[in-house]
Amino acid sequence: MSKRLIQNLAKTLSKQVDRFTQTEIECLILEFYSILGQTTSTGKSSLDERKFRSVLTNEFGLTNNTIMERVFRTFDKDNDSFVSSKEWVEGLCVFLRGTLDEKIKYCFKVYDLSGDDYITREEILLMVRNCLRLHGEEDPFDSIKDLVEITLKRMDHDNDDRLSFEDYRKSVTELNIVLEAFGTCLPNAMRIEMFEQRVFNNKLDRR
After folding, report:
1. Any idea what the Cα angle at residue 53 is, between residues 48 and 58, rounded to 5°?
2. CA–CA separation, 152 and 167 (whole Å)
3. pLDDT tens digits, one per residue of 96-149
4. Torsion angle defined by CA atoms of residues 61, 62, 64 and 70, in that order, rounded to the nearest 10 degrees
5. 163 forms bridges with which residues in the sheet?
6. Separation between Cα atoms, residue 79 and residue 75, nearest integer Å
7. How far apart are CA 197 and CA 201, in angstroms?
8. Model confidence over 56-107: pLDDT tens digits?
9. I need a surface site. Which of 69, 132, 141, 161 has the fewest CB within 10 A?
10. Residue 139: how many CA atoms within 13 Å on its side-chain side?
């Protein structure tokens, strides 16, 4: 993509997101096309799920397949199974620099595996079970059932045996640590700093 096209796209996106400067957006667009492995574009090139997952793992340390698939779907706002440069920048706006309210909405969407606006007991069991398997547990299902029941009971404020967005929002507002209670879906501060330093500093040096 030419420098002028990148600048024009960044200018347009800078009016839609307020977490990045126009220059930072240009750097993120350059990184996007670097990941694609191409220097030219018709404007329709997008990241498929395989390349996107690679970024999540290598740059941000995410490893849970279930969670990564949902992160991809959360970035992919138009549901076309690809992440465009616009969706990339908009997604990173929350992923890297989102407010607590934005992160609550993001995490709830990730954890709502079926997309029905509720987090069910079965979904919680699946996500937590997968997380523990990544840490070497053979089959942690039996050992986490009680924990899941306790967690669900404490977060289910309207007592309907599932978590609505309001249940989740209220729980996280009261205790921020439960934001990622069902699996890591956001990068930690160190990963964010490393990514931003590499992308913003290196890309600026190349401009």
Report:
1. 130
2. 10
3. 999 999 999 999 999 999 999 999 999 999 998 888 765 555 655 677 888 899
4. -170
5. 119
6. 9
7. 5
8. 999 999 999 999 999 999 999 999 999 999 999 999 999 999 999 999 999 9
9. 161
10. 1
